[in-house]
Amino acid sequence: MAKFVKPLTETRIKNLKPKATPYGDGNNLFLHVYNAEKKTFIFWYVHPITKKRTKRKIGEYPYLSLEDAREKARAFNKLISQGLDPFEYLARQAEMQARQEINLLEFAPKWRDLKLAKGENKPATMAREYRRLENHLFPIFGHCPINQITKIAVIDAFFEMYATKGDTVEKVIGRFVEIMDYAVEFGIIEANPLSTIQKTFKRKKDKPNPTINAKDLPALFKRLNLANNFITSKLLVEWQMLTMLRSKEAVSIEWAEIDWHKKLLVIPAEKMKGTLKNPRPHTVPLSTQALALLKEMKKHNGHRRHVFANRLKPDEPCNSQTANSVLKRNGYHGILTAHGLRAMARTYLADQGIDFQVAEACLAHLVGGDVSRRYNYSDYLELRRQAMQMWGDYVEQCKKS
């Protein structure tokens, strides 16, 4: 026979004496009286899944009235009858509500930090990308809840800007799509509404950097010799030519990275292009021509940290676009870029029958897939030394002619 529980009343509550066990009201609702000032409503129930007796505080009397406590108990019992633990259910609902209310400014740092933690971007690259979002994306959508962002709203926001700043918009949209993909993974939204938006802001096909044939080098040197440029700027063009380095890598070279005895330049992994997943330093065999150029640079910047130090900020390297500027000012705009010097050298090596993998290693290119590289650790140093010297001899010949 079920035990009769005498329901609580406001008058009875005021006169209840403190005791170790709580007073029952029925329907799993209890009131624990600690003393005259402290009285707490408790919901004491059997968990619908584990079948364990569970006790949870639901409010302090009189801040939570008897009637409101009973209303809560009725709602909890209804959830239990549906096989749901009421407190777990409400916690999930609150979490879902919080996720739905998170805006782009709140979520973007999580995306950034995760990308960095996974090694998908270098810190400097991410800092640059994030500044672009701060300048162009966050002012428009920063305070918008992620679950309210729509494809049409994004198109409307950037379509006009795309006409004048297409490259910037394409990069911003690309990162925006990534952020929204992460939002799906975090359960903030069920699907990415921007998954097809890049069809609207379609990236232009990258045009190969303009280059010239190696046989046209004498004409280039003739122009450089007559050019009214700083000698160090002209030497930088020749340095990039001889070492086949990318512009940013070429200008950032430090004297400490040069091994004069072994005739090597060792560029730390963090300076090389690529992600943080498989950081690789790059060792460049220095031809006699490259070593001679470095000795010439010693006269100008030997007291500086960087071989090609910035004239205005001596503690920093010169701008990575310096060589491009020299080429443009001397009639090579649209004909040859600093990066095109790499293509010219690579083509020359191919024409001389240099092995494909050796030539690609000269450019610090990865060859093959992850599996094949796992079994091939060679950097072809001695073969590259021969190739670089062959190229250096040719460059010197063109310079003299």
TrEMBL record:
Chain ranges of the Tyr recombinase domain: 207-388
Lineage: superkingdom: Bacteria
Key words, A-Z: DNA integration, DNA recombination, DNA-binding
CDD domains tied to this protein: INT_P4_C (cd00801)
One GO-annotated biological process of the protein: DNA recombination
InterPro entries reported for this sequence: DNA_brk_join_enz, Integrase-like_cat_sf, Integrase_catalytic, Integrase_DNA-bd_sf, Integrase_DNA_bind_dom, Integrase_recombinase_N, Phage_int_M, Phage_Integrase
One Pfam family of this chain: Phage_integrase
PROSITE patterns (UniProt xref): TYR_RECOMBINASE
Gene3D superfamilies hit by this protein: 1.10.150.130, Integrase, DNA-binding domain, Intergrase catalytic core
Molecular function per GO: DNA binding
Family the entry assigns: Belongs to the 'phage' integrase family.
Name of the molecule in the record: Tyr recombinase domain-containing protein
Annotated organism of origin: Muribacter muris
